Amino acid sequence: MTRRTRVLLADDHTLVRAGLRKILEQNGDLVVVGEVADGAAALAFLERQRVDVVVLDLTMPGEFDGFGLLRRARERWPDLPLLVLTMHASAEHAARAVREGASGYLLKDSAAGELVAGIRAVMAGRSYYGEPVQRALSALVRTGAAPRPVESLTDRELDVLRLVARGLSTKEIAARFDISARTVETHRAHIMQKLDLRSVALLTQFALREGLIESE
Predict the structure, then answer these.
(1) What pTM was computed for the model?
(2) What was the pLDDT predicted at 196?
(3) Is residue 134 domain-shared with residue 164, that is, in the same domain?
(4) Which end of the chain has fewer beta carbons closer than 10 Å to its terminal beta carbon, N or C?
């Protein structure tokens, strides 16, 4: 009997995960072995159970989002296929996901068969991008677009930005990362300088626009 591909679903929407599970398990060679709602839970699951491929969203709550999950999973398990399934259709999101370690990139309005094909492709060691994503990436290459401001931020600055945008205080952020309040203030000052934004409200608007957090 052929061993089934073990899939971990990382998405903060319960109904989305339920729909994905139903789609995938209609195929005899695929089995969903876990569902998680954020990046930290995904890493914890990967530490304790064997998984063949991760299907993940980019926008998730918690300590770090899908980009953070991509980066950390690639560092910890460099051969693990990571397939992004998201609503973010921009070439910039796709290009950044690829840089962070994504094996493929699909949009949530893709046909069910495309998700299955994407999983099989990345399991075979190939990259897989939905047709709209391929077009967007090709256009980005042709125009030679400059790097986006968000790409100037370090991993920790991105983490701090997400929490600032969610309304956490300096003290709460410091406790979350086990660092001093002064260090948090330094990170925030660097973020504002790099992005040329001078208020928490503007930082929040930026985070929403870049898909770093979701609108309530």
Answers:
(1) 0.68
(2) 82
(3) no
(4) N
